[in-house]
Amino acid sequence: MQKLLLLIALCVFSLSVKAETIKVMLVTGGHSFDTLQFFQLFDEFDGIEYEHFAQPEANRQIALGKADEFDVLVFYDMWQNISLEERTAYLRLAQEGKPFLFLHHALVSYQAWPEFESIIGGKYVQEGKNVEEDLLSTYEHDVWVYCRIENYTPVTNGFRELRFFDEVYGNVQISDKVKPLLSTTHPNSMPYVAWENHFRNSTVLYIQPGHDKRTYVEKDYRKLLFQAIHYLAKK
């Protein structure tokens, strides 16, 4: 009898642990990156399971409803092609309150889809038809980026200052509706390098640092992403 009760207790415990696991849909594509170290970063997150989708298959799966199976969608892509059906799927997810985390070059995605800027809370402007030169965004590799906390939330909890040897984006359009989380005074960077946005019923986070493996391995970067995913999953 005692063995049976113990077995039942272990099963209940296992199910409760599994229920607490955060499921992440991890999207990449359109930009090269240090793949080994990037996936190792997510492999080492306790209590977070991910399934990787590369573009354009990622958007195809989102349009088919695959994203409904996940707690948080994490985008490390830089993609441009998106069909009407796929756009509709993104907007449906936002209406239903699906949380989004966009990383680094995801800010450059969907230059020809104006609503994406409203989702992510900003836009890195590339050259294009009828784009004025003074609106073009800039980038600079291999610089030290010192970040200060703008607002303490569960995402930035436990930090005083962060430092990354990374890439900065300049002259970026940032919505005045976002809640800044991290800022920098680097002369070639946009003022905010992480923020929280709300679009329809979704909470959206954007974190700009994360260009390559030198940032992936940083303890503070790992903690920042871990806390961001937990905050979005509300667990």
Task: Give a brief outline of the structure.
The chain is α/β, with parallel strands linked by helices. It contains 7 helices and 11 strands. A hairpin with a 7-residue loop joins strand 9 and strand 10.
Please describe the topology of this protein.
Elements: H1 2-20, E1 22-29, H2 35-43, E2 48-54, H3 57-63, E3 72-77, H4 84-96, E4 100-103, H5 114-120, E5 122-123, E6 138-149, E7 161-170, E8 173-174, E9 179-184, E10 192-199, E11 202-207, H6 213-216, H7 219-233
Parallel strand pairs: 1-2, 1-3, 3-4, 4-11
Antiparallel strand pairs: 5-8, 6-7, 6-9, 9-10, 10-11
Helix pairs in contact: 3-4
Describe the protein.
This protein has 235 residues and is α/β, with parallel strands linked by helices. The chain has helices at residues 2-20, 35-43, 57-63, 84-96, 114-120, 213-216, 219-233, and strands at 22-29, 48-54, 72-77, 100-103, 122-123, 138-149, 161-170, 173-174, 179-184, 192-199, 202-207. Strand 9 and strand 10 form a beta hairpin. The longest helix has 19 residues, at 2-20. Residues 4-10 and 12-17 have low confidence and may be disordered.
Characteristic terms for this protein:
31% helix, 30% strand, alpha/beta, globular
Given as residue ranges, the uncertain stretches (5+ residues, pLDDT < 50) are: 4-10, 12-17
Helix percentage range:
25-40%
Which H/E pattern describes the elements? HEHEHEHEHEEEEEEEHH
Termini gap: 35 Å
Work out the strand percent: 25-35%
Largest sheet: 9 strands, mixed
Q: What class, by secondary structure content?
A: alpha/beta
Radius of gyration equals 19 Å
**Overall 3D form:** globular
Q: Helical region count?
A: 7
